[in-house]
Specification:
The complex is a heterodimer of chains A (about 475) and B (about 550).
Chain A lengths: L3 H28 L2 E4 L4 E13 L4 E4 L2 E6 L2 E7 L1 E8 L6 E7 L4 E8 L7 E5 L5 E3 L6 E5 L7 E5 L4 E4 L11 E7 L5 E7 L4 E7 L4 E4 L10 E3 L7 E6 L2 E6 L5 E6 L2 E6 L4 E5 L4 E4 L5 E3 L8 H6 L6 E7 L2 E6 L4 E3 L13 E5 L4 E5 L4 E5 H6 L3 H4 L2 E4 L5 E7 L4 E6 L2 E7 L5 E8 L7 E3 L4 E5 L6 E5 L3
Parallel strand pairs in A: 2-8, 22-26
Antiparallel strand pairs in A: 1-2, 2-5, 3-4, 3-6, 6-7, 9-39, 10-11, 11-12, 12-13, 14-15, 15-16, 16-17, 18-19, 19-20, 20-21, 22-23, 23-24, 24-25, 26-27, 27-28, 29-30, 30-31, 31-32, 33-34, 34-35, 35-36, 37-38, 38-39
Chain B lengths: L11 H31 L1 H36 L4 H13 L13 H20 L10 E8 L4 H13 L7 E8 L4 H14 L5 E7 L10 H18 L7 E5 L5 E2 L3 H11 L6 E8 L9 H18 L11 E4 H7 L9 H12 L5 E10 L8 H16 L4 H10 L6 H26 L4 H4 L3 H4 L2 H31 L9 H6 L7 H21 L19
Parallel strand pairs in B: 1-2, 1-4, 2-3, 6-8
Antiparallel strand pairs in B: 4-7, 5-8, 6-7
Classes of the chains: A mainly beta (about 475), B alpha/beta (about 550).
Chain lengths: ~475, ~550
Amino acid sequence: MRSYIELLRRLLFHLFVAAYIGICPWLMLFAFGYIYDPVRGGLARIGGLSISTRPPGAIIFMDGKRYLRTTPAAIGSVIAGEYEIRLVKKGFLPWIHKVSIPPNRFVSLDHVVLLPPRYDRRELFDAGFSDLLQYSDRPAAVAFSGRTVGNVRLLDFERGESSALFPRDEPWSDYSVREALSVYGTDRVLFEIASWLSTRYLFADLTAGTWKDITPLLPDKPRLIAWNRASPDILFGLHGDTIVKMDAGGGAYYPRFFPGVRGFGLNEKNLYILSGKNTVLQCTYDAMCEAYPLPMASSVGTVLEGAESEFFSIEVPTGDIVLFAGDRGELILNAAPYRVGDEKIAGTRFSRDTGKLLLWTRTKIGYLDLSRVREGPTPEEVLPQWVYEGGRAISRCFWVYDASHVLFQDGNELELLHPEPGGSYALHRVAGVKNRSRACYSEATGKVYFISADTGAVVELELLR
Amino acid sequence: MDFSYSRQNLSGKERRLQRILEIVPGATSWAIIIGSAALYLVHPLAGSAFIIAFLVYWIMRLLYMNIFLLIAYGKLFIMRRAGWMERIEELDAIIQDPERPPAAPPAGSLRERIARRIIGEQVKHVLKSGSLPPPSDAIYHLVIIPVASEAAAVVEPGIRALRDGVYPTTRMAVVLAVEERADDAVRDDCRRLVERYRGDFMACFMVTHPDGIEGEAKVKGANVTCAARTARDYFERKAIPPDNVIVSCFDSDTVVSPEYFASLTFNFMVTPQRTRASYQPVPVYHNNIWEAHSFARVLDVGASFVQLIEDTDPEKRVTFSSHSMSFKALVEVGYWPVDIISDDSAIYWKSLIHFDGDYRVVPIYVTLSMDVNEGGTLWRTFKNIYRQRRRWAWGVENFPLVMRAFLGKNGISPYNRFRYAFKLFDRTITWSSWPFLYALISWLPILYAPREFSSMPVFYALPRIRGTVFILALTGILICVFLSLFLLPPKNTRYGWLRKIVHIPEWFLLPPITIFLTGLPALDAQTRLMLGRHMQFFVTPKYRREGPP
């Protein structure tokens, strides 16, 4: 005798098997990009779209139809094709673009910055400053309100505080500041100050608010000087073809630390030296050196030998990628085709999170995806992707929003390059900057600090909300 | 079928076959776990397809099982109102006078009426089968309680429950099967218990199982076999045929519910070919449930649920833990295997093979309670449970033996052999590989997607599918939570409903428990068998914490 439970079990078993046979292939098709299209009456290929915006919460319209959720959102099961995507948020310009969703692909619009019709500004400090020098990602800067040392101030943008960096009663307080040099992230700034009689070098620790006169360590002005975050009081300079080492803390000076070089660079642990024979050495701070096996490089030495530059600043953004920035604007990489473009590179900025190297000339802005170089590049991939070529006097660039946007200063204009679907970049004016002054940007706060061209005040502008 | 249910004394060819079959479950489990991970890493799309197919299969099977858990629980709930002794008396009356008019329609509550209806169907079925049951006063019970190291405090509540049940103890013989290697204190305790309860039963005696008998391993099966042989002599002396004796082999901490033997007797009577069956109650772990650690409690309530679900599936029923069977069948099959750790399931397979497939497990909807595994401290409890679960999973040792029997000459049809083998294999592999597939492998697409794969819809669809599966699985957990609350011992002065409700969140420990105390011990046991590293019997220490006064 079969009990009712046994009969029910058999019935349910067959029902579940049938359901599995029905559901599983359907789900599989859906996951692999197919859906039933009731309009066409057959299977249609689907793709997807993910959108995130700064600020979040934008309403999404696809071909005029409102999507239920606001950004950030992942919209799956979209029948492949071209759609007009419109992102709308009160207080911002609508973001409208045609986006092509190919079958079986998820299109990612993950770094959309909604632009305001006009940026809100906040005046932090009154007029009177002539220039700003950024020394870290913190919302702070060194500000110059005149040419003399006594007028150099430290600005804390967050607290709105301003303090004199040097005392006014020093004999050199009325010297003029000839040059100020910072190494980003070290909180140290080297000031070259001069009167008509003499030149002095002041090395300031901006965290502690202290400074040292290191003039005895610098009998001549080096053509390259560097220090790093790990040992910020140890400085290396290049005099002629010799590296000198200066201990700003202990006052020691090593005039022939390493002779016969064409360049050097520092990272957190090591000193990298390009020898006169165009080989790279990896050294400790005690000059214990060994040959640095350049990954991926076979003939970078030949390229360096043929380079116009007399000396190179070396940067090792990752363990296997080495960049040689020449004094004549050449940028050479340790991977084929070695020379990065034919342009005179004015500056570079590396994004550790994305592996993208931002580079610029006076008129162009581009980037190199170093993570792809590491994977085994083709020559085309090492060529910079120029995203803007209409500059006049580009002086500095910043990666914005996880290296998706570029903020740059072109003469006295601050502009934002924002990516558009399809790979192109559009230009958006941010603000006017006082003539000959430098703007600062903090990715941590998403804010820009600059001296306004209109009022001369130090202004804070929220680029990312 | 004449088959030696042992891995000892095999011929060269049989030994090789046994060894190959020992490798199969472990190798299959490892192949599934490593293979699915490797498939995803080597070919993400194929791996994703596999994961989707698995997730859908897993959730559907979980929901399917939940339906039967509810049905089985419902039946257990209803059958609590069966009034087994009255039903036995009614059946006795029918046996004496089959021509008597049918009983009046059942009265009472809905539960009672449904219970009576189910029972009425069973009676009709047995009468129709022509296999007229013996009268209840001709049925005797043999209860074997194996003791290895357990104290009197663990064993005595079980004996007391036998005495205090509704079934007359004058037809019940209780045997304490004590290991010779047990401490003197343990043996003395058992002697004292026998003295104390001798007058309460038809017989109550102690049998000491000698240590080191050739061909025997240090396993429970050897101990209870020795006791059963002695009991057989006892029944022969009393001229009681084994046909009318039901043997119940309990763990030392087993405490039967008062209706247990009445229900067992009734079910024995209404089962056609009653001597070709084992009788499986619903094990619950209530003896120390309020003192046990939460994860131990969840695991053991889970084990009760698994048994309840399997009770509804005649094709999957295998004896588990404390259960009962016909003494005649036990004698005919040659008692329990004496060299196998998992004696509870082994006796089922041994009987099935011996009777050429004419053997089954009959569920009886009555509970018996045992101890939740408890070691005093959290870590010791965890270790004890792990070792206990590994011992349970060591039931995989039956696989090569059963398969060897199925591959040889026997009277079971090829279809049924395939069915049994497949179910045994499926249960074994599911136990060891599913927790890893669900808890680890199915996360792979969320944790890692190669660049060329990351922009495909499947990469976005999989987390959604997994999320839906998780929500559905949560429904299953909620069903378990509510049933566990109803299955708990009745409210008493020490622990009220508030205390019960506090235990609801502990069910959310299920995911780690499933990995570490279900999948891992099973994989461990299968790997040991695969590598030929045979296990020793681990006597789960019985420990009870003192509850609050």
